[in-house]
Fold:
Amino acid sequence: QAHSCVEVARASRAAAKSCRERARRTYPAPLWLMQHFQKPENALRRADELYAVGQKEPALVALHDVLSSKRHRTWQPMMEEVMKRFLTICVEMRRGKASKDGLIQYRIICQQMNVNSLEAVLRHFMQLAHEGAQAALELAEKTISDKVANLLDFDDLEAEETPESLMLATIGGSADSKKRTDRLLVTPALKFLWEAYRTVLDILRNNSKLEELYRDTAAKAFEFCKTYKRAVEFRRLCEILRNHIHSQTKVDPKWKDREPPTPEALQVHLETRFGQLATAVEMELWQEAYRTVEDVHALTLLMKKPPKPSSMASYHAQLAQVFWVAGNGLFHAYSLTRSYATAKSLKAAPSEAELTALASRAVLAALSVPPSSPVLDLNLLEYDLEHEKTKRMAQMLSFPSTASRATLLAEVVASGLLEAAAPEVRELHALVERKQVPLDLAAAAAPVLAKLAASDACGQYDLPLRRLVALRMLQQMERLYLTISIDKAADAITVLQWPQIEALLVWAVKKDLVSLRIDYKLGQLNQQRNKADAAASSEVRESLAGFASALDAVNQHLRSADLEKHAAETRARLQEAIGKSLEEEHQKVLARRLVIERRKEEQERLAMEEDKEKSRLKAQRQRAEEEEEKARLQADAERRDAEREHRTREEAEAAERRKLAEQMAEQRKTMKVAKKKGWGEGGGKVETDVDKLAEKDRSELMREQKMLLMDERQEFEKRLESMGKRHDHLERARREGERDLLELRWQAQQAEDKKLHEANAASLALKMKESRAHDLQQKARFSRMAAAADAFTKRVLATR
Structure:
């Protein structure tokens, strides 16, 4: 699961990057100026202002910037308003690619948080595209005063205009006004509506949360193709849906952990195919209808539970219509039979009248299947392309592989279809399917055929049934007559005209159903002699066989007593013989039983050994596959780690290189060398742009920076030398100028120092005299205490 999340995130980043690239190619280069908005409200307000003054292109760019910005990857309600306004402008400007890019970006935004918002936006987009197409058609109808149906005679919406057609359109007269209207109004509107449906289907193709919207979108696309008679677009739509289901169900080693489609998803796809088949039938695209039948068969094989009976009932009804148009009466009848059985098993079953009508159609369809010769049926064992095709179709539709008219009629009778049909249908079946038909079959069947032809549900089988009645009469005439006049045959077969009888006779002879030949010279229908003799001998043989069976039954009835006595005697002899050989047979049976048990044990032992060998080989194969898978996963993990490390290293180097470039750019802006007009050998300008510097290699950047620093150092040394010389000259001039001033100042200082010395000397002498006088006074005061101090000293010394 982690691996799957990583792959999904990587795919999302790749999709976002491709969308940005496509958006840059979609919008004109002067308008591709990214406007970074802090809030979606600001972008919406700015887009409204631009839209109000007629600047739709800048408004579209502003809204697309919000949708594609990583800053606004979290869904919020205002993002839905931004997306709707973006789609409104795209519809007005008919920007199909831009709308698809915006929807992809919005899907990335709200896929994990609010899928309902994506559904609302997609429905709003389809509604806007539909309203735009309707408005364009109404405008075109008013412009040339013609009906809408007459404006839809162009072949392909995706066909580009050639220079020749444009030249012819510009020089054409009033007769080309309709083509110009188609080219200017109708074609762009319908083309954008078609692209809108394709875009929505492409957005929803792998989204399991919006399967209902996927089905509704496909239904709207089918209705678009049917309404505007777009056969080419319908074929492309069928191929798109076919590719979608193939991409979901195919086995891809890269997505081993991807979950298969759920039964609900398969049911949605099956209902979509049923709608596709109905549209193909209404548009009479029978080849696409056949391919749709193949798609339905493939989906039913994938489904674990059977489809809904209501859907299968309508599906078999559509199959019946397809096979009727294709001329396959057998499968047409089988489809009606399945449709009746499915409709009868519904919870809300149709009324009795509807069931009777459906049963009558099924029985008449079975009767309308052309008969086939038994000889031809035997030859079908050989390889026949038509037979193989029929067998494959029967297998695909779950019909019997040995489908034939006889088995179908037997199934109709056994399943109760004949009893549920109308009385006139049962009467017709009794007339044409009995062994011996009268020569007045046409007169007896004419009222029934007339009544059936008047019915809306059964009228389509009138001609096949009349041909069947005529064929039965021709076969009966062949049994009864060697020759018969053409007039008598035409008078007897009143349900067809003679040209139709003639065509039927030729077809029956070709299919080996009759052996009659038309002789216009004699006005007769003749049989070939050898085939007539073979038919006569066959009928005589059958009659004799029946007569012999009847005689044998009479004989057994007359000799019943003798036969019982003979049987009793025979039974007694057999019992005696059996009693004699009973013991021997019993021993033989026991011996045979032992042999059989030994053989069974041997076979069981061999089977067990074979199972063990198979289990061992299977386990060995499984271990090898697990080891191989483990090695592959380890290799993939190592490869991803290496790629991640390489990517991380490249990103780190790029960040470091950009950081270095920013530092160098800031440093170069302050350099004196960078401010000069020329630098280096070529005299080029010093690069200070961070983006351009970041594109260079680190060694090249270091080399350039080193050269710049060396040049800056040399320049600095030159400036220092020049400043030193200037300072020397200034210092010499200053000293020469201050020499006289210093001498005068010295003399004045000498005089001041002398005066200050004299004053200090006088003051010092005065202080010395005062200190002398004070000291003498203290001496005189302390001399009075000299005798006491001497006495104290002596006393102290004496005590020691």
The mean pLDDT is 78. The two ends are 112 Å apart (CA to CA).
